[in-house]
Amino acid sequence: MSDLTVIQTSPDPETVAQDAGRHRSIAEKVRAVGQARIGAGALLSATAAAIIWANAATTSYQDFWGMHLVVGVADLQLDFTVHALVNDALMAIFFFTVGLEVRREFAIGELTSWARAVVPVVAAVAGLAIPAVLFVLIVHGTGYTSAWGLVISTDTAFLVGALALIGPRVPGRLRVFLLALAVVDDIGALSIIALVYTENFTPLPLIIAAIGLVGVYFTRFLRGGRGPVYGTLAVIVWLAFLASGVHPTLAGVAIALLIPVYRPNRRDVEHALELARTFRQSPNTEYARAAANSLRESISINERLQSASSPYVAYVILPLFALANAGVVVTGDILLAALRSPVTWGIIVGLVLGKFIGVFGSTALLRLVRVGEFGPGLTAPGLAGGAALCGIGFTISLFIVDLAIADPQVQNHARVGVLAASLIAFLLATIIFRVAEAIHPSHEFGQILVRPVSSARDHVFGPDDAPYTIVEYGDFQCEFCLKASGSIQQVHEQLGDRLRYVWRHAPLQRYHPNALAGAEASEAADLQGRFFEFERALFADQENQRPSDIVRIATELGMDVDRFEADLTSPDVTGRVQDDVLDAEAMGIISVPTLFVNGRRHVGPYDAQSLIHALEAAGPEHQ
Q: Residues in domain Thioredoxin (predicted)?
């Protein structure tokens, strides 16, 4: 009754390959598609529907989106077209989710460490600047140079969906890089919308907005009922932005940046577990409500809102936006005019070529001068394909069309350019990824250790010049890893200083609910020089690795517990574990322990004698 987490038996690494080719159910296939692909598919379908509708019934399309809606009573009324309702109101929710992601990345994500952030930040800035310069050069003299904002931003939804659809076999590290880049890209795009495309500015309503934003910040200190307060203040801030002339969607960003984000606190988690245990022992409504509230409050409202809003944004708001904005009338005359339009070509060149040069060129330069971190998976072909995908500028590009261009005919040319550029960027990325796969055959996939052992970074037991090395990707709650640790100990007893052993993290959270927490705790222990002692303690009690158990182990080892608890939530600790996880993904590791013997993947039994035979067969590393 004391342990509410359930440890399942993880896949046996000796037999998991036998199940790789089994037939999956339809439900499993649907789950495997993922939200990113489904969202991109919905966006693409809505775009196609908009084009078909606009060409099959042009008057109907224009009349529907131009229909007026009046909201309010007496003299307090808002008059919106349906198109404006989507672009000004619903898209504020989209930009709100963008703001939540920005806030999270800078607080506890990839952008907390400059060493991690420098590559995506520089790539994003170059990807904002170079497309704008190319656009201005092409449209110079036409009177539309001020529309350069059309080519600055990458569509994150399409980017992630396309990467899942056509990207490399294991895109984990590339995905993290592109998401961090997209966050910085979004910051630039939102800033430009606010500073460049705001007309008829009236400062007085912004005072009301500022008061509302102060209220949003202090709402976090209320003991209860925060949801209705957040909702009321959000409406007030949005109306104030609308009245000021600043595009009201930016209210969503401003509010999101003030929403608190934090990693779960150990004491909050323990309190939630205690309430859940109490409810389990004495089920009643009061305990159920208390346990549910405690569990909810242990997760930051930022992450709760992201989780709650992302399906609506992906499956409803963005497809509606595409349906309202992608309705380009396509006739021979219009296409011919678009092909002759400098605006169309400025957008195509800016998005396709400018984004590619900016992102890929800047990362190549950083790699050349050895600035920033490039882990396994951030290969030149991967970065080239990712840079090409950045040319998909769909959502924000279409959003800026109405803000930057007044002439309906030129707006049509711009929309043709945005759609064409997005299609070309997708096809270019597909070609790059497929060529890269053809150059690097799949039979070597995951057989070679992708990141060499480094005593400055890895957890190493044994001398650096040892002729034999075993690298283990493992999980502290895995029973097979416990067995492997015993085997490796026997190997060490026989080989002594001729063996170098390296541990890397690959927590299987699907089977072991506390595996990630254990991995992060071991990294926090490493900051006090106690990694292997902590590792042995975790293996010694695999059933009890809840937050209180982890702190108990630190206490028993005589560690500085206050420092240990602070380090548990540090970006360096979480980033260190994530690096190993991404490395494991880059090699297709789906079961643990996965062992590498002198740099090559070990297949088969991992008892002591089998490992010694494998080491001797591989030959010494240092000749």
A: 429-620
Question: How many Å apart are CA 427 and CA 52, to the nearest integer?
Answer: 22
Pair of tokens at residue 90: 């619903």
Coil, strand, or helix at residue 55? helix
Claim to verify: residue 356 and residue 424 sit in the same structural domain: yes
| Three-state secondary structure call for residue 79 | strand
Dump pLDDT digits (tens) for 482-527.
999 999 999 999 999 999 999 999 998 888 888 888 999 999 999 9
Number of independent structural domains in the chain? 3
Mode of pairing for the β-strands spanning 468-474 and 499-505: parallel
Indicate which CATH number applies to the domain containing 532: 3.40.30.10
Contacts for 477 with CB less than 8 Å, ≥ 6 apart? 7, 507, 511, 512, 514, 515, 518, 538, 542, 545
Residue 379 sits at φ, ψ, to 5 deg, of -80, 165
The answer to whether residues 150 and 397 touch, using CB atoms and an 8 Å cutoff, is yes
Q: Which residues contact 159 (CB under 8 A, 6 or more apart)?
A: 178, 182, 389, 390, 392
Asked whether residue 359 falls in the same domain as residue 470, the answer is no
For residue 121, report the phi and psi dihedrals to the nearest 5 degrees.
Answer: -65, -50
Coil, strand or helix: which one is 460?
Answer: strand
What pLDDT, in 10s, does the model give residues 213-230? 999 999 988 877 788 899
The overall pTM is greater than 0.70: yes
Domain limit, last residue, from 439, 468, 503 = 439
Same domain, 568 and 424: no
Last residue in a domain, options 439, 467, 501: 439
Domain boundaries, position 485: 459-618
Residue-wise pLDDT for 461-484, tens only, equals: 999 899 999 999 999 999 999 999
Phi, psi of 445 (to 5 degrees): -60, 125
- 3-class DSSP state for residue 452? coil
Asked, for residue 218, whether it belongs to a domain, the answer is: no
